[in-house]
Amino acid sequence: MTFLYKADPVRGAEWAELFAQKASDMPFRIWPDVGPAEEVRYLGAWLPPDNLIETFPNLEILFSLGAGIDQFDLSALPEHLPLVRMIEPGIAEGMMEYVTMAVLALHRDLLPYIDQQRRAVWQGMRLVTSAQRRVGVLGLGMLGQAVLEKLRPFGFQLSGWSRSSRMIEGVDTYSGVSELPLFLAGCDILICLLPLTDETRGVLNAELFAQLPRGAALISAGRGGHLQQDDLLAALDSGQLSGAVLDVMEPEPLPVGHPFWSHPKILLTPHIASMTRPETAVDHVLDTIRRHREGLPLIGAVDRMRGY
Ligand code: NDP
Ligand code: OXD
Predict the structure, then answer these.
(1) Helices 278-293 & 9-22, crossing angle to 10 degrees?
(2) Could you tell me if residue 9 is inside a domain?
C-alpha cells in the first residue's frame, strides 16, 4: 500500500514527515526510490513517469500534485484509474493573494509608474475609483471563485465567465461561447483562471483582445498555452491593451531574449502565483484514499469527457 511521491524532493521530505505523523502505517517513498513497484497503490506526481501502467500495475489512484492536470495524457490512463487533482486551501490562498496583488497593481497604474521611475519621470495619472473599474474572471472554479471573493471588499464591479452557468453573489455571471462577447465588453481587467484543454488552448488571442474595452489589462495565471504571445505584443503595441501580468508561459522558463522579458507593459513572474501546501495537501490525499476505500465519490476527480 505504498504512496509514491514524484516531484521536488525537498518538498517531498515535508510530505514524508506529514505522512509519518498522519498515516504512519502507509509506506511513503520519494521518486526515484520506488521500492517494489507492485506495492505502489498511490502515486502523487507533478509530471507522470513514462509507462505508468506497465511500471505500476496495482496503482489505484493517480494524484496530480497541482490543481491543473494538463500535463497528464488522459487518453493514456485506463478507465478504472481515477486522476485526482489538488483541491486544498493552500492553492486557493496563494492565488487569491497573487491575483489581488496583480489587480491592484493594474488598477493603480503600477506598470507605467515603474516605467516612469526607470526614466526619472515624475508625473501622476488621474485616479480611477474601484467602483468605476470592471474586473472579470475567465473560469469560475475553485480558483476563480476564491479570487472573486477576495476582490469583493475593494468595491470593483465584478463579473465572471464559465462553461456552465453559475450564480455568485455580487458577480455578473456569463456562460458559454455565446455570452463571451458581452462578458468581455465589460472587463477593464481580465483575469484568466481557466484550465488548459483543447477548447481553451490559445483563447487569449487577438480576437478576444479586440472585444475588450480599449486600454484593458490582462492577468494570465492559468496556463501559458492559453496565450497567443504575438497577439499580446501586437495588442500592447497598438494600445488595445495597456498592460499584462503573466505568471504562466509556454514554454517555461521563458527563453532568453524573448521580448516579454523587457517589455515595459508586462510584469512577469515565474509560475509562482500559488503552490500546493504540503500540510493541507496531505489531508486532501489521505481523505481521498479513505473515500476511495469506502467507495465514496472522490473530491477533485478529473472528468475525462470535459478534460479538467
Ligand atoms: P476548476 O476546474 O475548479 O475550474 C475551471 C473553471 O473553468 C470552471 O468554472 C469551468 O467551467 C471553466 N471552464 C473550463 N473550460 C471552459 C470552457 N471551455 N469555456 C468556459 N469555461 C470553461 O479549476 P481551478 O479553478 O482549480 O484551476 C484553474 C487552473 O488554474 C488550473 O487548471 C491550472 O491550470 C491553473 N493554476 C495555476 C496556478 C499557478 O500557480 N499559476 C496554480 C494552480 C492552478 P464550469 O464551472 O462550467 O465547469
Ligand atoms: C497548479 C500549478 O496547477 O501550480 O497547481 O500550476
Answers:
(1) 60
(2) yes
User: Catalytic one among 152, 163, 166, 271?
Assistant: 271
* Contact predicate 263/233, CB 8 Å: yes
pTM of the prediction?
0.98
pLDDT at 158: 99
Active-site residue, 271 included: yes
If one counts every other C-beta atom within 10 angstroms of the C-beta of residue 49, the result is 14
C-alpha cell at 303: 472528468
Residue type, 256: V
Q: How far apart are CA 4 and CA 186, in angstroms?
A: 46
The mean per-residue pLDDT over the stretch 201-218 comes to 98
Nearest ligand to the C-alpha atom of residue 219:
1
C-alpha span between 95 and 193 (Å, rounded): 10
Is residue 223 in some structural domain? yes
Distance CA 154, CA 76 (A): 45
Number of H helices, E strands in the chain: 9, 12
User: What is residue 90's predicted lDDT score, i.e. its pLDDT?
Assistant: 97
Segments forming the whole domain that contains residue 146: 90-268
Distance CA 284, CA 186 (A): 37
The minimum-distance atom of ligand 2 relative to the CA of 276 is 5
